[in-house]
Amino acid sequence: MSNNKGDINGVVKKQPVSHEVTTWEKYAYTSIMCFTMITYGICNSTFFPAFVDLKYALNTSLNMIALISTFMCFGYIMGSLIGFLYKYINRQFTLIILLLIMGFTVIFIPYSDHLWQLYLYFVLIGMCAGTWNSTNNVWLIEMWQKQSGPIMQLSQFTYGIGTIIGPLIDRSYLLGEKDFNGDPMNAHLGGGGATQVLPDLGLNITAVVNGFNTTTTIDDSLERKRLLKTPFLISGCLHMIGPCLLLIMFIIRKYKYVPLKNKDVVDKSTLKLFNREGAPKLLIIIVTCIFLAFYSISEVIYLEFGATYFQYIPIRLSASKAAEIFSAMSLSYTIGRGVNIFVALKVKLHIIIAYHFLIIITAIITLLTVDQSLLHLWIGSLMLSFGFSPIFPAVFAFIGQHLEITNRIGTILIFAHACLNIIVPFILGTYLEKYPFVFPVGIIMNVSVGIVMYFIMLYIIRQTKRKYKDLKEYKVDKNQIPLKECI
Q: Which end of the chain has fewer beta carbons closer than 10 Å to its terminal beta carbon, N or C?
């Protein structure tokens, strides 16, 4: 007996292939992926506050350390392209292997004796991160479909939790920049004797032993490496928990998803807007890629150079104080994403994106007025992180409402998200020490391009909807969980 059945006009239609993931699998995989986002956030926010200490640990300059971001971005781009191979290799198992590699690599960073070793480690970390970001976003949209808006915010909210924890782990182990006398501005060496740190020569520690003054010289770079081993060990070990949980799921309940093809859909009006015949699918992908490319530069500047920027502005904060503000920014970033889990239930995604762009612009103006005002710095920094918080997941989910995000399309979008970030360290690493204002100026320039691309996206969507006036909301299967239960 045939499994096909005819419609009222006698035309034979194929029945859709079942592609539903069970409720238990949704919750289990989403929980593991959110936990992994926490540890991923911990790792990312552990690296960048340590830039100054890595500079002295390897006896090099800040612009050479800043190239870490370039190599990490290069690896990220390579990792994002792995999505093209999922047609031939298992996505879940590939992700498990790469996340484990990332965890081990993080642990070995403080053991680097040469810059090339450090760069190699960050290429590997970037490759694993690119694969994770590409796969995680596609996977969540794939499981939750029309309900993915709040879930994407939840995923990024958990990442934000990790970015709060990372600097707090770092804080007790950073010596930071040296002051004008050559002393670390966040010295951790204590004791009863006088301590003096001479630039590039090491630590001269004077102590009283049996009634005599004794001076011992300790290599500053070795001390910094010793201190950095602890936070990187903690971050790396935490990050390996997620892939171990995914491996358990792979063994007991391997993830399977079979997407519906256009030819399998009986009612064409239920297709997403840009999956309909004649829709400008390629155009919306290109515009979204341009948006992600320029907007992501702004987030990279903020996430990777925020703590370093605070140490070179006229106020010249210590490494500890800079890490404290950066941790508060991460808290604001996380709160913003947490709030938007619920806001996304009531407010349309394109409106959320629009008013957060206004918050970002206001924050940049505030940062540009900072001279010796610590209050202005706090206000501008917290506003900036809150403004950034929902935009990337909201845009991804917004496009996912109008276009089926496949492994291939997700790979293209994540590739675009990373491709221009490779130039950021060359600019920030070269000029940040002498011209700290490149930090806020760089953000506002790229955000401006992003805003223009965003309005072009809205215009394309509006015009396409007019073309298909019979457009109906993408139908949610009756077996799917109601939107209000997504969180």
A: N
Is the residue at 216 inside a domain? no
The count of C-alpha atoms lying within 13 angstroms of the C-alpha of 159, restricted to the half-sphere facing its C-beta, is: 23
| Alpha-carbon gap, residue 487 to 371, rounded angstroms | 42
How far CA 401 is from CA of 26, 170, 271, 273, 394, in Å, comes to 19, 39, 10, 8, 11
Q: How many domains does the chain have?
A: 1
Give the residue numbers spanning the domain of 344: 20-180+223-256+270-472
The DSSP result for 429-483, as a single string, is HHHTTT-TTHHHHHHHHHHHHHHHHHHHHHHHHHHHHHH-TT--PPPPPTTSPPG
Query: Coil, strand or helix: which one is 247?
Result: helix
Question: How much is the pTM?
Answer: 0.69
Task: Tell me, yes or no, whether 14 lies in a domain.
Answer: no
Q: Would you say residue 181 has pLDDT above 80?
A: no
Q: What is the pLDDT of residues 315-355, one digit of tens each?
A: 777 777 887 887 788 788 888 888 988 888 888 889 999 99
At 305, the amino acid letter reads: F
Q: What are phi and psi of 22, to 5 degrees?
A: -65, 155
Whether the Cβ atoms of residue 394 and residue 349 lie closer than 8 Å to each other: yes
Q: Which residues contact 259 (CB under 8 A, 6 or more apart)?
A: 19, 142, 404, 406
Q: pLDDT tens-digit profile of 23-43?
A: 888 889 999 999 999 999 998
